[in-house]
TrEMBL record:
GO MF, any single term: N-acetylmuramoyl-L-alanine amidase activity
Keyword line: Hydrolase, Signal
GO biological process, one term: peptidoglycan catabolic process
Protein name: N-acetylmuramoyl-L-alanine amidase
Presence of keyword Ion transport: no
Signal peptide: 1-24
EC primary class: hydrolase
Species: Actibacterium naphthalenivorans
UniProt-listed PANTHER family: N-ACETYLMURAMOYL-L-ALANINE AMIDASE, N-ACETYLMURAMOYL-L-ALANINE AMIDASE AMIC
GO CC terms: outer membrane-bounded periplasmic space
Occurrences of domain MurNAc-LAA (ranges): 239-394
Catalytic activity: Hydrolyzes the link between N-acetylmuramoyl residues and L-amino acid residues in certain cell-wall glycopeptides
Amino acid sequence: MGRIFRIFGLCAAVTLWAAAGGMAQELSALARVNAARSGVIDAGQGIELRLDLSQPVPFRVRTLDAPPRLVVDFREIAWDGIAPDALLRGSRASGLRMGPVRPGWSRLVLDLTGPFAVQSAEMRRDDATGRADLVMRLAPVSAADFAAAAATPEAVLWGLPQAVALAPPRQRQDGSRPLRVVLDPGHGGIDPGAERGGVREADLMLTFARELKEVLLRAGAEVALTREEDSFVPLESRISIARAARADVFLSLHADVLAEGHATGATIYTLSDTASDKASQKLAERHDRADLLAGVDLSHQDDVIADVLMDLARRDTAPRSDALADALVAGLRQAVEHMHKRPRQSAGFSVLKSPDIPSVLIELGFLSSKRDRENLTDPEWRRKAAQGIRDALLNWAQSDAAQATLLRK
Ligand SMILES: [Zn+2]
C-alpha cells in the first residue's frame, strides 16, 4: 500500500481534502468506480461505505440533518454505468444517489435511517496499480449530537453565487433594449428529475432550452441558461444566476410526472403561497425535495429570501408574472393546441421566488402521459412549442413595456 490519507475521530461533519500537492498530476483524469468492489454495508453498529476507484481523488464529506444524509463531494468521478441499488447492501442506509453537481465535481448522497456520524474516512492508494480505496465508517450518535454537528448551508452551497451578494437587477424592461431571457432547464446532474419510458426530464429540458434559446436569439432576445450541461444547480442558485445575468424574465422548464390523476398538456405555473390544487402543491414540494435529496440544506433559505423588502418587490412583480403566464398559455395554445384542461396553475415553487424578475414555470408536458411523452420527444412538436413561447414572450414584453412607460409618466 502506498500513501494513505485518513481522518479518525467521531464527528458528524468533516471537511477532508485528500489532495496533497504531489498528487496534482495524478488527479487530472476522471476516476472510475469498480462497482463489484464497492458498496454500502452494515458494519458493527454502524455503516461502512467503500469505493474502489481507478485513482485517488480529492473529496470532502459532511452530514446534513432533516432528513439525515451523508454527502460526499468528489473531484471528477465518472458514475455512468453504476446502479445505486446495486451498491446498497445494508439496511441502515435507505437510499443512494450520485452524479455530477457542477463542472468538475461529483456528489454521492447516502440517506441514513438514523443519526450516524463519520467515524473515519480513509483513502488508500495502491502504488503498484495506482488504484485507490476509499473506506468511510459511520457510527451511531444521539440525535442531538447529530443535529448540532450537521453542516451549515454555506458549506453546502460552497462556491455557488449567494443571492444576497449580487447586484440589483437592471431597470424594468421598457422595449428600449433587447429582452434578456434566462431559461432554466429543470433538474440535472445528481437530480435527473422525472424518468419515464427511457426519457429523463433533465436531459429533455436541456435539449429544449438549447432549441428555445436559438429561436429566441433569432427573435432578437438575449438568452442565458442556468445550466449548460448535465450538472446540478440548487434552486436558490438558479435565482442567483438569473439575477447575475440581470434577467428581464425567467422561465423554468419542466416535464414532470404527476402521480395524481391523468394530467396531460402544457401547464403554466406562477408562484403562490396557496397552491391551486393538491397536484400543484405536491409538484412544488417534490422539486424542493429533489434539492434536499441532492444534498442542499434548505433550512436557512427563508432567512435569505423571505425578507420584507423582497415581499414588497414581489408585489410589483406578481402581476407581471401573471400576465406573462397568461401570454404563455395563449402562445402555446396557438402553437401546439393541446393544453392542460386548466393550463394556469400556481404553487410555492422555490425557483419562482425572485422578488423582482417576472418568473414562471412551464410544464411543457407530463412524462407520465404517453401522449405528452410522444410530443416532447418529437423535435417538430418542440419546434412549434418554442415558437409559441417566443410569440408569447414578445407579446408580453410589448404590453409590459407599455405599462412601464405609463408608470413613469
Ligand atoms: Zn421538474
